[in-house]
């Protein structure tokens, strides 16, 4: 069973939270649903990553299946700082800084040895090629989901009609300075992969219908002050 307790952040005692959320000790995500709120709250911090170096990354690894366990967070080290990203449901996306201790053991909600997990670095060859490159731009990814109505008891006439949602917060895309001496991708995307956290450098979500990008290329003095919580 995971432990529970009160969390003290910036001098304010928050409500009791699960201290093994996502199997990570003391991890408290910071979920956003509204892209405008994300930009208002974290725009300055994210924009400040432009010009900094992408140094490393970690994903949660299923040791039994030997695969990336996509339900867990992804950690990027940029400019000497670790940033954590995790997606939930269809429209929630969390960005935090220095809230994950990569040395602490993982335990997925008490699963223990039934789901052995560990942090792994440099697991994807294509993403590895981005290490050492400089971030040149950041986009917020938005997605409008289109569905076909297949059952409508109250309104049979609506059957087979398509319905498109409002734009939902979908993830983040980092662009990197091109390097003529180094082959490989120039983008890194972290996105909501249907209640999981996807990471790719293959422009995997670029072909999505309904995808919109919001650039964070304004000068930092045009953004509100950073409100990311400091390292604990």
Walk me through what this model shows.
- By secondary structure, the chain is mainly β.
- It is about 5% helix and about 35% strand.
- It has 2 helices and 18 strands.
- It has helices at about 35-45, 125-130; strands at about 5, 10, 10-15, 15-20, 30, 55-60, 65-70, 75-80, 80-90, 90-95, 115-120, 135-145, 145-150, 160-165, 170-175, 185-190, 195-200, 210-215.
- Strands 5, 6, 7, 8, 9, 10 and 11 form a 7-stranded antiparallel beta sheet that branches. Strands 17-16-15-12-18 form a 5-stranded antiparallel beta sheet, with helices on one face.
- It is globular, with a radius of gyration of 19 Å.
Biggest sheet layout = 7 strands, antiparallel
- Structural class call reads mainly beta
Distance between the termini: 24 Å
Instruction: Please report which band the strand proportion falls in: under 5%, 5-15%, 15-25%, 25-35%, 35-45% or over 45%.
Output: 35-45%
Helix and strand element order: EEEEEHEEEEEEHEEEEEEE
Count of helical segments? 2
**Percent helix range:** under 10%
Keyword list:
single chain, 232 residues, five-stranded antiparallel beta sheet, 2 helices, disordered N terminus
Tell me the layout of helices and strands.
Elements: E1 4-5, E2 8-9, E3 12-13, E4 17-18, E5 31-32, H1 35-47, E6 54-62, E7 67-68, E8 74-78, E9 81-88, E10 92-97, E11 117-121, H2 125-128, E12 135-143, E13 146-148, E14 162-164, E15 168-176, E16 187-192, E17 197-200, E18 211-215
Antiparallel strand pairs: 1-4, 2-3, 5-10, 6-7, 6-8, 6-11, 8-9, 9-10, 12-15, 12-18, 13-14, 15-16, 16-17
């Amino acid at each position: 069973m995971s432990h529970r307790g009160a969390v003290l952040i910036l001098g304010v005692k928050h409500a009791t939270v699960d201290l093994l959320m996502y199997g990570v000790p003391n991890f408290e995500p910071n979920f956003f649903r509204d892209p405008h709120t994300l930009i208002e709250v974290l725009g300055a911090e994210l924009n400040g990553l432009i010009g900094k170096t992408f140094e490393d990354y970690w994903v949660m690894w299923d040791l039994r299946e030997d695969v990336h366990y996509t339900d867990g967070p992804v950690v990027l080290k940029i400019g000497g700082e670790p940033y954590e990203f995790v997606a939930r449901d269809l429209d929630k996306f969390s960005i935090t800084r220095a809230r994950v201790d990569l040395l602490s053991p993982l335990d997925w909600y008490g699963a223990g040895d039934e789901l052995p997990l560990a942090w792994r670095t440099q697991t994807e060859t294509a993403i590895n090629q981005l290490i050492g490159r400089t971030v040149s731009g950041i986009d917020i990814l938005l997605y409008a989901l289109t569905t076909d109505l297949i059952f409508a008891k109250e309104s049979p006439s609506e059957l087979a009609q398509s319905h498109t949602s409002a734009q939902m917060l979908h993830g983040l895309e980092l662009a990197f300075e091109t390097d003529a001496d180094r082959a490989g991708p120039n983008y890194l995307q972290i996105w909501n992969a249907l209640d999981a956290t996807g990471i790719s450098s293959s422009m995997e979500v670029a072909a999505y219908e309904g995808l919109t990008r919001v650039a964070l290329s304004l000068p930092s003095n045009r953004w509100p002050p950073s409100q990311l919580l400091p390292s604990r």
